Amino acid sequence: MHAWPASEVPALPGKGRDLRIHDTSTDGLVTLAPGPVARIYVCGITPYDATHMGHAATYNAFDLVQRVWLDTKRQVHYVQNVTDVDDPLLERAVRDGIDWEGLAERETALFREDMTALRMLPPQHYIGAVEAIPGIVPLVERLRDTGAAYELDGDIYFSVEADPHFGSVSNLDAAAMRLLSAERGGDPDRPGKKNTLDPMLWMAAREGEPSWDGGSLGQGRPGWHIECVAIALDHLGMGFDVQGGGSDLAFPHHEMGASHAQTLTGEFPMAKAYVHAGMVALDGEKMSKSKGNLVFVSQLRRDGVDPAAIRLALLAHHYRADWEWTDQVLADAVARLGRWRAAVSRPDGPPAEGLVEEIRAALSNDLDAPAALAAVDRWAEAQAADGGSDEGAPGVVSRAVDALLGVAL
Ligand code: 5CA
Ligand code: ZN
Q1: Which of 16, 34, 313, 355 could be cross-linked to 333 through a Cys-Cys bond (beta carbons 3.0 to 4.6 Å apart)?
Q2: CATH node for 297-405
Q3: What is the pLDDT of residues 186-234, one digit of tens each?
Q4: What pLDDT digit, counting tens, does each position of 34-90 carry?
Q5: Residues 19-277, CATH architecture
């Protein structure tokens, strides 16, 4: 699949700092020291509805990861998937009486537009589940042939016991895993499974649902976790730097994915850090396509909201926090954007070198975007109060805010 166009990232004076970030698997901060090419996989959308503020907040977090690495003069190898065949997508298509492929195409196109408007840097490889199927089949066959997977009425399940490291991403106890498995796409109550948590790798063709030739697996479609693993291993290999997504993906999705990959390769770990963004809520409930309590990026854009203000609204919250979207959050962001634009509209101002270092320090410290915003606020306040005589300082600030925060002033 094609991704979306990249906005330019201005080069800044000096050099950025290495990223220290929270890793779910150790529940602590790790300093990542990638080679000249940093490798990141971020789980993409299931395209059955438009991009809401929760999605945007999660992609914003991983866009900051890229920007911190680019500022250290590294290249970034970024891979993202599109879950363009899965139960929720098929159910929505049936509900609305439309073709599932058309639905997926339409919503993926809208996602690209939203990402472009928000200046989120695109992945180098943007891969749909459907196009990944030829690569998924041999992985499932290999797991089955080595005894790490088994058949149940034509479906193939992964045996979590095959991975000695199973559980090391989310560190949850058995009861919590069982609960989350039932909530998030698993089927712990299906009789005949070796372990109630075992996830499906290949689902045999169901009446009225799309299916593909799975070779020795028979006609069917892939499970959710193996989809991301096949794409990640194909384009990044093992031991990549960051596996990213919202906190609702830590279990089962990232746990199972890591176990698939570790069992397939015999290597550990799949990723050096498992990074999870907090959940955005509306009216006290997690914003979710299934609950329907959504604020869409595209709707705000249609209402004439500047995408830079949407981005500032996201940046005002630490990526790990759970937070609530309100009209006030957006109003504050619009006001801040106005103050910043006024501050950079003059030819000179207070010195800006210190500010660039402050933004770098904030972001390299577990992506502390609110601290970065506070530093820019202080500069803008000084500009508004006393001005300054540093020629070109406003230009330096604009470029830093663009390069490191993705906000075009
Ligand atoms: N296609 C799968 C990943 S392979 C998926 O989870 N798709 S999604 O469309 O449901 O979510 C896309 C990304 O947005 C995921 O990282 C998910 O964790 C994140 N996300 C979903 N809802 C929220 C929310 N309310 N707040 C923050 N992030 C969210
Ligand atoms: Zn995924």
Answers
A1: 313
A2: 1.20.120.640
A3: 999 999 999 999 999 999 999 999 999 999 999 999 999 999 999 999 9
A4: 999 999 999 999 999 999 999 999 999 999 999 999 999 999 999 999 999 999 999
A5: 3-Layer(aba) Sandwich (3.40)
Residues of the chain with CATH 1.20.120.640: 297-405
DSSP string, 89-151: HHHHHHHHT--HHHHHHHHHHHHHHHHHHTTPPPPSEEEEHHHHHHHHHHHHHHHHHTTSEEE
Scanning the structure block, which residue is given the tokens 């619009």?
334
3-state secondary structure of 400: helix
Runs of H (alpha helix) within 159-278: 174-183, 224-235, 255-265
Give Cα 28 distance to the centre of its chain: 20
Q: From the CB of 248, is ligand 1 less than 6 Å away?
A: yes
What's the 245 CA to ligand 1 centre distance in angstroms?
7
The answer to whether 124 and 78 have CB atoms below 8 angstroms apart is yes
Hey, which of 24, 55, 229, 291 would you mutate to test ligand 1's pocket, going by the most ligand atoms within 8 Å of its Cβ?
55
Mutate to test the pocket of ligand 1, among 58, 65, 86, 289 (most ligand atoms within 8 A of CB): 58
Write out pLDDT tens, residues 293-321: 789 999 999 999 999 999 999 999 999 99
User: Ligand 1: distance of its center to the CA of 342 in Å?
Assistant: 35
| Assessment of whether the complete model's pTM goes beyond 0.90 | yes
Q: 24 exposed, middle or buried (CB, 10 Å; 0-12, 13-18, 19+)?
A: buried
Please name the residues in contact with 67: beta carbons below 8 A apart, sequence gap of 6 or more. 9, 121, 363, 403, 404, 405, 406
> For residue 404, what are the CA distances in angstroms to 190, 282, 407?
48, 28, 8
Max distance between CA atoms of the chain, in angstroms, equals 76
